[in-house]
Amino acid sequence: VQLQASGGGLVQAGGSLRLSCAGSGRTFKDYAMGWFRQAPGRAREFVARISRGGAGTYYADSAKGRFTISRDNVENTVYVQMNSLKLEDTAVYYCGADRNLRYSRVAYYTGATHLENYDFWGQGTLVTVSS
């Protein structure tokens, strides 16, 4: 599957953005999807994950209560709605697809936050939060 992330931009602290990740191919609905981010000089980190059917979601502590991940398997798109943005949310945001037949059914498992468990990646979209 090919993934295309979009929706990044410049936003003031306290504002909102919705990122989208469009996938190609008929198998999109079979993959769990995750959002990660990478700030300058830092490692890529987990943000949120949604199961392949959309019923399960899992968030990093930094995203809980502010971010909402969702998906539309008809449109082959996964979203993350980001509210109450903070300066520390500034990063390039990436979407990843997990095609593991067993683990894609769930949002949380011990490997959900690990980069190596995602098989496909989008190109990233930059989110800049200003004061």
Report on the structure:
The structure is a single chain. The chain is mostly beta strands and 131 residues long. Helix content is 0%, strand content 45%. The protein has no helices and eleven strands. The protein has strands at 3-6, 9-12, 17-23, 32-38, 45-50, 57-59, 67-72, 77-82, 91-98, 120-121, 125-130. The strands form two sheets. Strands 2, 4, 5, 6, 9, 10 and 11 form a seven-stranded mixed sheet that branches. A four-stranded antiparallel sheet has the order 1-3-8-7, with no helix packed on it. A hairpin with a 4-residue loop joins strand 7 and strand 8. The protein is globular, with a radius of gyration of 14 Å.
What portion of residues belong to β-strands?
Answer: over 45%
Average pLDDT over all residues: 96
Distance between the termini: 37 Å
Listing every helix as H and every strand as E from the N terminus to the C terminus, the arrangement reads EEEEEEEEEEE
Put simply, the count of helices is 0
Structural class: mainly beta
Give the low-confidence spans.
none
The residue fraction in helices comes out at: under 10%
